[in-house]
Amino acid sequence: MILIIDYGMGNLRSVQKAFEYLGHKAVISENPGQVREASHLVLPGDAAFGDAMRNLHDAGWVEPIHSSIEGGKPFLGICVGLQLMFSESEERGKHRGLDLLPGKVVHFPDSERVPQIGWNQIAIKKPVEILAGVPEGSFFYFVHSYYVDAAVPEDCAATTEYGLEYTSIAQRDNIFGVQFHPEKSQDFGLKILKNFASLN
Amino acid sequence: MLAKRIIPCLDVKNGRNVRGVKFSADRDAGDPVELATRYDRERADELVFYDITASAEGRDIVMDLVQEVSEQVFIPLTVGGGIRAFADIREILKGGADKVSINSAAVKDPDIIRQGAESFGSQCIVGAIDALRKPVIAGAASAWEIYINGGRSATGIDALEWVEELVDRGAGELVLNSIDADGTRDGYDIELNRAVAERVDVPIVASGGCGSDEHIYQVLTEGKASAALAASIFHYGDYSIPEVKNFLKQRGVVVRE
Fold first, then answer.
1. CA distance A183 to chain B (A)
2. A183 and A2 in contact (C-beta within 8 Å)?
3. Residue spans of alpha helices (H) in A25-159
4. B191: helix, strand or coil
5. What is the ipTM of this complex?
6. In A, which residues are within 8 Å of B4 by CB distance?
7. What global pTM score does this model have?
8. Which position among B22, B38, B79, B103 has the lowest Cβ density within 10 Å, counted as fewest Cβ atoms?
9. Among the ranges given (A35-44, A184-193, B38-47, B87-96), the one the predictor scored with the smallest mean pLDDT
């Protein structure tokens, strides 16, 4: 069972629908105790970083997320979920993240329209499992004002250009994160979710 | 590179019909779900559902439609029309839409934009305007006035000042509907789009007046819009989405094929 972490932020139903469409059982859960029963964890998010982190702490998600990742369960962060995987964010003040990967979340340069909204391409940096069957240069749907500046280059699996080149897919061991919305990115987005759900 | 977006707009009224749709006999006449899935197959970049009845029943019909479409279509869905209060935003997002387009309600109570953005994030709050050109006084720059209630009531509000306020309050994107151009099929109001795009930093979606692929090209380049919304040219079958994208690509505009 794929567990979609519900910490009171954003529309989680679309992520669940996408997994269901692909034939996987996905449960939206407000209960960190359920992590034990899950085969995969998904951390979505549309919210502000600081609010999201506070909610994760208050609802008791932080420790179960860390221990399930240490136990080897595949983990996928989507949009702000990817950003939360990193050490810290500069979104409206300074906030600590889950610190699964070193790096920080910073604002796009002023030269660009912010938020970035729409379909942008990825440049693949390393052949991670979730990208199986996804061609170089594929378009995905992005909506964000902040991006991840990964401290360890090897954690970056793909980049995207918007005023600068930034990490749009991160990966280390069983930890995966995508800055775009795979559940809103048609065939290749669904392909990524399918690849993730097939990991064991 | 970030692609320019092509967004078909479905106007939905009672009885699940779509305004302005003329189908040939071999198509599923008037079924908005069919139309939405066709646009999805043609690789539309987003879909907009507009409730033109703006009543409680109209909302229910649109939301049933969004619910059904979102089971099988995995691109962003926006709902507009008839939003009056903050509770409507919550209901629409819970019902499966990704964004809510807010027009008259924001003029009546601008705080609805802030409330929506703070609760659900700017990414799902679209500020929509209906703008009409004011007569140009010699030597002065063009100006537009905001209208509400489906373009029926003048407000006296200057459009360029209003878009700035919408963005300050948290709108993550703007849809600019030109009353002058709407329904003419003579092209978008290029000057309006460019003036707003130069005034604010959020993405601009052009709306109203589209009659050809050339019009879309103009508003995405000269007009500086990030996306073009169109209804009849797609509904009537004058152009398919791939045809428009191919035309844009040949002219050097980045699109997702």
1. 6
2. no
3. 49-58, 62-70, 80-84
4. helix
5. 0.94
6. 118
7. 0.95
8. B22
9. B87-96
